[in-house]
TrEMBL record:
This is Uncharacterized protein. Residues 1-21 are annotated as: Disordered. It comes from the Bacteria. InterPro entries: TssA-like.
């Protein structure tokens, strides 16, 4: 495991209760992400946020390794540095 993947695994959020802020589970959270993506597509079409949210939708439910492989390692390293 590379340093970046190790750091990302270490910084992964801990599980939360099934109902957070009115969301009753993964499907409800995914619907919210989809609604946010659609809002950005409609109201801020030049924003890269819609693309990031689309990618998040695509990665929901995938194993950590698959998600990590989908993100370039240099980008993960930068995110880890910036979050410290």
């Amino acid at each position: 495991m590379s340093d970046a993947s190790h750091a990302m695994a270490q910084s992964a959020p801990t599980p939360v209760p099934a109902s957070v802020d009115g969301l009753a589970g993964r499907d409800a959270a995914l619907r919210q992400v989809r609604a946010l993506r659609q809002w950005f597509e409609q109201h801020e079409p030049s924003s890269p946020v819609a693309l990031l949210l689309w990618q998040a939708e695509r990665l929901v439910g995938k194993r950590f390794e698959a998600v990590f492989r989908a993100i370039p390692e240099d980008l993960v390293e930068r995110w880890v540095r910036e979050s410290a």
